[in-house]
Amino acid sequence: MKLEHLKSLKKSELHAHLNGSISPKLLYELALSTQTLNAKELGLIQAPPSDWDSCFALFGLVYKVVRGPQILYRCTQAVIEKFLDDGVSHLELRTTLKEDLEHGISWDSYLDTILQATDDFLNSPQNGGQITVKWIISLDRSKGLAYVEKSMATILRHHKKSPYIVGTDFCGDPYIGHFKNFERTFQHARQEGLKTTVHFAEVPRFEDLWEILDFSPDRLGHACCLNKGLFEKILEKQIPVEICFTSNLLTGVVCAPEVHVVKAFYKARHPFVICTDDFGIFHSTINDEYRKVAAILNLQVAEVEDLAARSLAHTF
Ligand code: IMP
Ligand code: ZN
User: Fold this and answer.
1) How far, in Å, CA of 204 to CA of 254, rounded?
2) How far, in Å, is the centroid of ligand 1 from the Cα of 77?
3) Angle of helix 107-122 relative to helix 69-85, nearest 10 degrees?
4) Could you give the CA distance from residue 285 to residue 23 in angstroms, rounded to a whole number?
5) 152, 181 in Cβ contact below 8 A?
6) Ligand 1 pocket check: which of 15, 22, 27, 59 to mutate, most ligand atoms within 8 Å of Cβ?
7) What are 196-241's pLDDT values in tens digits?
8) Which atom from ligand 1 is nearest to the alpha carbon of 138?
9) Buried b or exposed e, range 283-309, using 16+ CB within 10 angstroms
10) How far apart (Å, rounded) are the C-alpha atoms in residues 155 and 162?
């Protein structure tokens, strides 16, 4: 399928981390102008990761470059612009709260900056009403309950005054922590009107997956390392899945394209949405993801068009 045709399809992107979605070109330019990365690090950001650890090492380099409100503002707009160029008409970006007092960033000012950048972009002639953007705020499970509760209080304060914050995301190192410890906090956010998505079964650790399904998240991210019981429960509950195909292969959690869970969800006619996760880290695009999934599912053009159209039905 031709790139121009893929680009022309209106679609949603529902699983994209802000700092993982900065294009390698922009990241490189920023790294040079700020002189924040050494020669070896500059080399590393020019290639996709080869496994889980190298993926997370790359985030460490991104955080060295994206410092201070001006760069954050610029990166936020660049990420939105790239999705707009690729034909995304509804974008749900996500990010964890950041504090970097040395560079004038607190949790509040971090949120203020990305929300202002979003508002300015959406009201610019460049957008012309073509894309809508919403925010999902991620809570890192590895940082413990006190951090998650404090983050949630900040998120809820901003949610009351901003139309852009629509949901929360349970993310972070899936080998650390248990959803049960955080469930009350997510329940509270739900009562306050925020939707929930969860990084789910991204690795083969089954510790808290049944508890997460009992909570009935509004969407699940990844869901690529499932056993039969979990797969069937997701079908029964009809929870839409955010498929991050390249991410799962490059982080090594799925060993080959042919065994990716998207095939089983497609066969079962279960709702899923093709997403990038971190297109900057993985050197991919939303249209690359459509092309790869279309190839593995043997889709005809009309079926790809249908997949793109249906992605708009699962937004928050
Ligand atoms: P940020 O929250 O905007 O900084 O987005 C990057 C962060 O998202 C990373 O530091 C990770 O914590 C999280 N993240 C990105 N991709 C993944 C993933 O595939 N699994 C788990 N967490 C991820
Ligand atoms: Zn993710």
Assistant:
1) 10
2) 19
3) 40
4) 9
5) no
6) 59
7) 999 999 999 999 999 999 999 999 999 999 999 999 999 999 999 9
8) 2
9) bbbbbbbbbbbbebbebeeeebbebbe
10) 10
Split into its structural domains, the chain has a count of: 1
Residues framing ligand 1 (Cβ under 6 A):
17-20, 59, 95-96, 138, 140, 171-172, 199, 202, 247, 277-278
The pLDDT of residue 5: 96
Residue span of the structural domain in which 46 resides: 3-95+102-314
Closest ligand to Cα 114? 1
The number of the ligand nearest the C-alpha atom of 277 reads 2
| Residue nearest atom 22 in ligand 1 by C-alpha distance | 172
* List of the chain residues with pLDDT < 50: none
CA distance 273 to 139: 22
Ligand 1 nearest-atom number relative to CA 96: 2
The pLDDT of residue 112 is 98
Specify the CATH number for the domain of residue 134.
3.20.20.140
Q: Whose CA is nearest to atom 21 of ligand 1?
A: 172
Ligand 1 nearest atom to the CA of residue 18, by list position: 3
The whole-angstrom separation of Cα 185 and Cα 151 is 10
